[in-house]
Design a protein that fits this description.
Shape: elongated
Structural class: alpha/beta
Largest sheet: 10 strands, mixed
Helix content: 40-55%
Radius of gyration: 37 Å
Length: 677
C-alpha cells in the first residue's frame, strides 16, 4: 500500500493545479514562505485522495482501530497475568488472580482499561503515537530475534511449522524493526531501549525461579558441549592445574563442613563432585530422584557450587571405586579424592575399616591425590536432637533430618576473641537446657570444638549427652547448638590465626598449593600460612635458606617457616602408652584370627621405626600447632601390603587426635607447582 501511494503522490505539494499543468510540480510551494499543505508528509487524508471510494477508507480505519483495540484490551491482560504468575517483578502478584472457569484476569482488565483511558484523555494521539509505535516495533523485533536465536542454538524443541521459514529472514526482520524505530523518532527509540534493557537487567539479576526453556539455556548446552570437546583435545599443563575434587560426603546435608572446606580452595573455579554411595542392591529409583532434587536445592540455597553423584553398591569400597572411575566427563574429571576421617574405626566392623583403608590405595592406583579431613567431634550431623517444650516443662525428643541454615547475618566476620558472630544469633533458650549457665561460666562461652581437650572433658562432665544448648533458627524447632556450630564451621569467616602446613615429603606440591588456595579465600583471609619442614641431611641454616628460596620461586606467601631438627628423637613414654592402647584390641592373639586383618607381631617389629616417628611427629604437632585454625599435613602412606589397615589408622589417630581441624593430604607425585607464571 505504501509503495502504491508513494508512486502517485509527491512528498510535498502545493495543491495548485497550475503547477501540475505547467509541470512545475511543487516549486511554488517550496519557494513560498508558507509550508506545503499537501503531499505524503503533510496531508493526513492522502489515502482518500488516491482511493476510488473514500468512505471505504474511513470504514477500514474504524474497523482496524476497533479490532486492534479489542485485541490489546483482551490479549494484554492475559500476557500480564502470565508475567504476574511467574512473579518476575515485586508487587504485581495481585494481578495474577484469575476468576471464573476460564481463569479470566479481571483485575488486569481493569488496569488495562485505566491505562487506555488515561492515554485517550491526552486528546493528542499524534503525541503518543511514536512511543506506542516504538513499543510495538520493539515487540516485533524481539519476536523475530527470538526465532533467529532459537534456530541458531539448534534446539530440537524449536520446530517452526511455516514451510518457508528462514532464520535469516527473522534476523533481517528484527533489524528492519530497529531501523524503523529510529526513523520514526530517535529519542522515543532510545527511551524504548532503556526501558527494555532495565527490565532485562532486573530479571537477570533477580534470577526468578522459573524455567521457560529459553534459547539461552539451549546456547548454554551447546557452548558447554563445544568447550568440553575442545578441552579434551588440549594437553594438560602444570600452570593450568586445578584441584578437581571427588568428595565422599554421602548426602552433603549430613557433612556440610567437609564440602565447605573443599569449596574454600576450589574457589568456584574447580570441579567438585559430592559422591554418595548407597549400600543397597536395589534402590528405590523414585526415592533416589527426589533425593537428588532435594540435595541440589540444598546446594543452591547454601551457595555451594558443586555436583552430586549418587549410586548404589553392595559396599562402600566398590561404590567409591565406581565413582572414581565414572565421575566427570572428558578432561573435566576429579583428580583429588577427599574423605572424612573414620572416627569410629576402633568400634567398627573390621571389614569396613579395611574397605576404608583400601579406598585410599585404590585412589593412588588410579593416579589420584587423597585428602582426609578430621574435625574433633566428627563431621556427621545428619541426625539432630530437636526439642519441643510442653506446658509442664518436660522435653519431648524428636529425631528428624534437617537442613542447617543460618541467617546470612550469622556468617559474618568473627570477633578477635575467637567467638564467631553466629553465636550471637537470635535464639530462644528453653528452660530444659538447665546447664547453659554452668557451661558458659565454666567455658567462658567457648564452643566445644574450640575448647582444649581439658575444657572439652569438662564440658562432657557438665552436660548430659541429650541436653546441650538449644537454639531456634529461622522458625525451626530448637536444635543442638554444638552440632550447628560444627556443621557451619567452615561456612563462616575464620578468626584471626594460622594455617599450618606440615610439608613432610615432596608429593608434587599439592600439600603446599591447597593451603595457599585456602588462605586466598575470603573466609580465611585473616589466617596466615606457617610452613614446617623436617630437617634433612643439610645444615639447618642452609636448608632453611633453600626452602625460603623455593617458596619464593613458587610464589607461596608465608608468615613463618620452621625447620624441625628434633624429629629423630624418641617419643615420650606417654605417647608410646597411648599408641599401645590404640592397637591393643587389634593385635593378633588367641581368639582374633589372622585372616581378619589384625596387627601381627612381625608387622609391628618391621614398622617399629615408622610408628615411633609418627608418635614423635604427633608430639611436635601438639607443641607447635595446637592453637592453629587448620593444619594441612602430608598424608603418610605405607607400601601396599606391608601395613595393615588398623596399624595405619592408629598412626592417623596419633597425628590428629585432640588437634584443631586436620587435613591430611598427599599428591600423586605429579607436579602442580611451577616456577614460571
Amino acid at each position: 500500500m505504501g509503495w502504491m501511494v508513494g508512486s502517485v503522490t509527491l512528498r510535498d505539494a502545493s495543491g495548485d493545479i497550475a503547477d501540475y499543468l505547467n509541470n512545475t510540480n511543487n516549486s511554488t510551494c517550496l519557494m513560498s514562505s508558507q509550508p506545503c499543505q499537501y503531499g505524503l508528509i503533510n496531508n493526513m487524508h492522502v489515502m482518500e485522495l488516491v482511493s476510488g471510494f473514500s468512505p471505504l477508507i474511513l470504514a477500514g480505519i474504524f474497523a482496524a482501530t476497533l479490532s486492534s483495540a479489542l485485541a490489546s484490551l483482551v490479549g494484554a491482560p492475559k500476557v500480564f497475568q502470565a508475567v504476574c504468575k511467574d512473579n518476575l517483578f515485586p508487587g504485581i502478584h495481585i494481578f495474577a488472580v484469575g476468576f471464573g472457569s476460564n481463569n479470566e484476569p479481571r483485575r488486569a482488565y481493569v488496569l488495562t482499561f485505566v491505562i487506555a483511558v488515561a492515554f485517550i484523555l491526552v486528546a493528542e494521539l499524534n503525541a503518543i503515537a511514536p512511543l506506542i509505535s516504538n513499543f510495538f516495533l520493539m515487540a516485533y523485533a524481539l519476536i523475530n530475534y527470538s526465532c533467529f536465536d532459537a534456530s541458531f542454538a539448534n534446539s530440537p524443541g524449536f520446530r517452526p511449522s511455516f514451510r518457508f521459514y528462514s532464520m535469516w529472514v527473522s534476523l533481517v526482520g528484527a533489524l528492519i524493526c530497529l531501523a524503523i524505530m529510529f526513523v520514526i523518532n530517535w529519542w522515543t527509540a532510545l527511551l524504548t531501549f532503556v526501558i527494555n534493557c532495565a527490565l532485562y537487567v532486573y530479571i537477570h539479576r533477580s534470577k526468578p525461579d522459573v524455567n521457560w526453556g529459553s534459547s539461552t539455556q539451549a546456547h548454554l548446552y551447546r557452548s558447554t558441549l563445544y568447550d568440553l570437546l575442545r578441552l579434551n583435545m588440549l594437553e594438560d599443563h602444570v600452570k593450568n592445574f586445578r584441584p578437581h575434587c571427588l568428595v565422599l560426603s554421602g548426602d552433603p546435608r549430613s557433612r556440610p563442613a567437609l564440602v565447605d572446606l573443599v569449596l574454600s580452595f576450589s574457589k568456584n573455579v574447580s570441579l567438585v563432585v559430592c559422591g554418595h554411595v548407597i549400600q543397597e542392591r536395589k534402590p528405590e529409583h523414585a526415592k533416589a530422584f527426589l533425593q537428588q532434587r532435594a540435595v541440589y536445592s540444598y546446594l543452591h540455597k547454601r551457595k555451594m557450587k558443586a555436583f552430586y553423584s549418587m549410586l548404589s553398591s553392595g559396599n562402600l569400597r566398590s561404590g567409591a571405586l565406581s565413582l572414581m572411575q565414572c565421575a566427570g566427563l572428558g578432561k573435566l574429571r576429579p583428580n583429588v579424592l577427599i574423605l572424612g576421617y573414620k572416627n569410629n574405626w576402633q568400634t567398627e566392623k573390621p571389614r569396613k575399616v579395611i574397605d576404608y583403608f583400601n579406598i585410599i590405595h585404590d585412589a593412588f592406583d588410579m593416579k589420584m591425590a587423597v585428602g582426609i579431613l578430621r574435625v574433633q567431634g566428627g563431621l556427621d550431623c545428619d541426625t539432630l536432637e530437636l526439642h519441643t517444650i510442653s506446658e509442664g516443662g518436660d522435653d519431648n525428643l524428636l529425631s528428624e533430618q534437617v537442613i542447617l541454615e543460618e541467617d546470612e547475618d550469622d556468617v559474618d566476620e568473627d570477633d578477635d576473641d575467637g567467638r564467631s558472630d553466629s553465636e550471637s544469633v537470635d535464639e530462644d533458650v528453653y528452660k530444659s537446657c538447665t546447664d547453659l549457665e554452668k557451661r558458659d561460666a565454666k567455658l567462658g562461652r567457648a564452643t566445644p570444638d574450640e575448647a582444649s581437650p581439658q575444657t572439652a572433658s569438662a564440658l562432657n562432665s557438665v552436660l548430659p549427652s541429650s541436653a546441650t544448648q538449644c537454639v531456634r533458627i529461622k522458625g525451626q524447632l530448637p536444635i543442638n547448638r554444638a552440632k550447628l556450630h560444627s556443621a557451619n564451621k567452615f561456612h563462616r569467616k575464620q578468626r584471626k590465626g594460622f594455617i599450618d602446613v606440615w610439608w613432610l615429603f615432596d608429593d608434587g606440591g599439592l600439600a603446599l598449593l591447597i593451603p595457599y588456595l585456602i588462605s586466598q579465600s575470603s573466609l580465611w583471609q585473616k589466617c596466615k600460612l606457617r610452613v614446617f619442614f623436617l630437617k634433612g641431611k643439610e645444615e639447618m641454616d642452609d636448608q632453611q635458606r633453600n626452602m625460603a628460596a623455593l617458596l619464593s620461586k613458587f610464589r607461596i606467601d608465608y608468615s613463618q617457616m620452621t625447620v624441625l631438627d628434633s624429629y629423630e628423637n624418641q617419643p615420650s613414654q606417654q605417647s608410646i602408652s597411648v599408641f599401645q592402647a590404640l592397637i591393643s584390641s587389634w593385635r593378633e592373639k588367641e581368639g582374633f584370627p589372622a585372616k581378619s586383618g589384625g596387627i601381627s607381631e612381625a608387622e609391628l617389629l618391621t614398622l617399629k621405626n615408622k610408628s615411633l616417628r609418627h608418635m614423635r611427629l604427633a608430639e611436635l604437632m601438639k607443641e607447635h600447632s595446637k592453637d592453629s585454625n587448620l593444619i594441612v599435613m602430608t598424608l603418610p602412606i605405607p607400601r601396599k601390603g606391608t601395613c595393615s589397615a588398623f596399624l595405619y589408622m592408629a598412626w592417623l589417630e596419633m597425628l590428629t587426635n585432640h588437634m584443631p581441624p586436620v587435613l591430611l593430604l598427599r599428591g600423586n607425585q605429579t607436579s602442580v607447582l611451577t616456577f614460571y607464571s
